[in-house]
């Protein structure tokens, strides 16, 4: 028996395997004995069928089984001996069994190449400090007030800031009459819709009026089908409602979980600060990853790319049988980002391993505390669930990669003891 391993590329190994027929004799006889004990034929009790009859009926099947088992055994042993961890399925490109001399086959194995990432400890990219300005806090505060506002009927003409309620009677776009939706009602907040011309036509309208509105859609309208086109709307106005913001009294503050307006704005400022800082860190990490990818080129096995694309297009599929294979166009479009994501993962894995980065138990608990608060459940209940389901290990791994990402932008881990 002989196996020759050739390095076809950084991610591909080719195995030339030769198994002499002589090496198959002993396992063939063993398998034949097993068949003899189990097979029953007309006129013979189980275990009493003559060997010649078993060979005549099952000889080829037994030979194929023995060859397959021997090939699997040889490949597993040789790959383990050569420290090759296959990525994806092994591919048999040539196979020959002459039944007299030897079984020969050629097998291609994809694998991750060894990498040695240089420069990760000093990428020259750091996370800039961010600041939150008073006007940003006020804008977010005003936005929240609108979200918590109510609208109520007013007996007057509609003006900017009002909500106009009505029904479409006729719609013509670029001279072509449109089919009206089954629900013809609309609600338009004057001054904030994507079609300013429509809002202008409703300004000054009263409940009970029928209006004809002519305007042109803006060239940057969110729906590209209407960009720059002329429109004629005939509508009936059924109600005019003004926006009534909430009163920041004790009852309202209790409802939203703050003691007063000052605390609400303080919470908004803190949230905005975290968002800005997180965005700045994400941007810096991506820049550092791109720099390391450029400075440390390495190949990615095609099987990993295919698997990641398959996962991305099927991740929302509930039943595995509904999963689909990526098309050639999807492979072409999604491959660059998939390759980058795989390289990013390998770089962070390298950094975490090299620097012996592991989240401390306190860091794991802190993340669980955040999640428990977000899910509105008890911390100990969530921690118990994660432990019982095995997801605690997945969480540790996520934190490990996050800490490695922090490392390459100059944020060093606070602790390296292993989480328990």
Description:
It is a single chain. The protein is of the alpha+beta class and 420 residues long. The protein has three domains: 2-110, 2-Layer Sandwich (Alpha-Beta Plaits), CATH 3.30.70; 150-244, Transcription elongation factor, GreA/GreB, C-terminal domain (Chitinase A, domain 3), CATH 3.10.50.30; 259-407, Trigger factor, domain 2, CATH 1.10.3120. Helices cover 46% and strands 18% of the residues. It contains eleven helices and ten strands. The strands form two sheets. Strands 5, 6, 7, 8, 9 and 10 form a six-stranded antiparallel beta sheet that branches. Helix 1 crosses helix 2 and helix 7 (302-314) packs across helix 8. The longest helix is centred in the middle third of the chain and has 35 residues, at 261-295. The two termini are 47 Å apart.
Features:
alpha+beta; Chitinase A, domain 3; Alpha-Beta Plaits; 18% strand; disordered C terminus; 46% helix; four-stranded antiparallel β-sheet; 3 domains; 420 residues; six-stranded antiparallel β-sheet; Trigger factor, domain 2
Quick structural summary:
By secondary structure, the chain is α+β, with helices and mostly antiparallel strands. It is built from 11 helices and 10 strands. The strands form 2 sheets. Strands 5, 6, 7, 8, 9 and 10 form a 6-stranded antiparallel sheet that branches.
Would you spell out the secondary-structure blueprint of this structure?
Layout: E1 2-9, E2 12-20, H1 22-38, H2 51-81, E3 91-97, E4 102-110, H3 134-147, E5 150-153, E6 163-173, E7 176-177, E8 185-189, H4 196-202, E9 210-216, E10 230-244, H5 250-256, H6 261-295, H7 302-314, H8 328-354, H9 361-375, H10 379-389, H11 391-407
Antiparallel strand pairs: 1-2, 2-4, 3-4, 5-10, 6-7, 6-8, 6-10, 9-10
């Amino acid at each position: 028996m002989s196996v020759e391993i050739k390095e076809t590329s950084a991610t591909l190994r080719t195995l030339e395997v030769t198994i002499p027929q002589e090496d198959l004799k002993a396992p063939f006889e063993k398998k034949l004995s097993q068949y003899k004990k189990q097979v029953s034929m007309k006129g013979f009790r189980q275990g009493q069928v003559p060997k010649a009859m078993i060979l005549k009926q099952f000889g080829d099947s037994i030979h194929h089984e023995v060859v397959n088992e021997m090939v699997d055994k040889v490949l597993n042993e040789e790959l383990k001996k050569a420290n090759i961890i296959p990525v994806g399925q092994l591919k048999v490109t040539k196979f020959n069994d002459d039944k007299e001399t030897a079984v020969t086959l050629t097998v291609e194995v994809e694998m991750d190449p060894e990498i040695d990432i240089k420069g990760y400890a000093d990428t020259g990219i750091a996370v800039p400090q961010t600041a939150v300005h008073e006007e940003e806090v006020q804008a977010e505060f005003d936005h929240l007030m609108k979200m918590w506002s109510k609208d109520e009927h007013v007996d007057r003409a509609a003006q900017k800031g009002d909500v106009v309620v009505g029904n479409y009677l006729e719609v013509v776009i670029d001279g072509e009459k449109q089919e009206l939706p089954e629900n013809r009602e609309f609600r338009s907040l004057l001054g904030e819709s994507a079609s300013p011309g429509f809002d202008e036509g409703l300004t000054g309208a009263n409940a009970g009026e029928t209006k004809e509105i002519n305007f042109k859609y803006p060239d940057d309208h969110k729906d590209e089908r209407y960009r720059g086109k002329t429109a004629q709307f005939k509508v009936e106005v059924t109600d005019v409602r003004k926006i009534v913001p909430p009163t920041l009294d004790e009852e309202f503050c209790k409802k939203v979980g703050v003691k007063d307006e000052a605390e609400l704005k303080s919470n908004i400022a803190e949230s905005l600060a975290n968002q800005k800082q997180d965005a700045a860190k994400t941007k810096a990490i991506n820049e550092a990853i791109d720099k390391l990818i450029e400075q440390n080129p390495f190949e990615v096995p095609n099987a990993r790319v295919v698997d990641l694309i398959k996962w991305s297009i099927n991740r929302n599929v509930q039943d595995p049988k509904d999963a689909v294979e990526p098309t050639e166009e999807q492979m072409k479009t999604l491959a660059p980002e998939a390759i980058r994501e795989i390289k990013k993962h390998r770089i962070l894995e390298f950094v975490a391993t090299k620097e012996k980065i592991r989240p401390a138990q306190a860091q794991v608990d802190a993340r669980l505390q955040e999640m428990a608060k977000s899910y509105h459940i008890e911390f100990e209940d969530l921690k118990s669930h994660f432990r019982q389901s095995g997801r605690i290990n997945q969480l540790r791994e996520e934190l490990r990669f996050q800490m490695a990402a922090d490392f390459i932008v100059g944020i060093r881990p606070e602790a390296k003891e292993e989480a328990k």
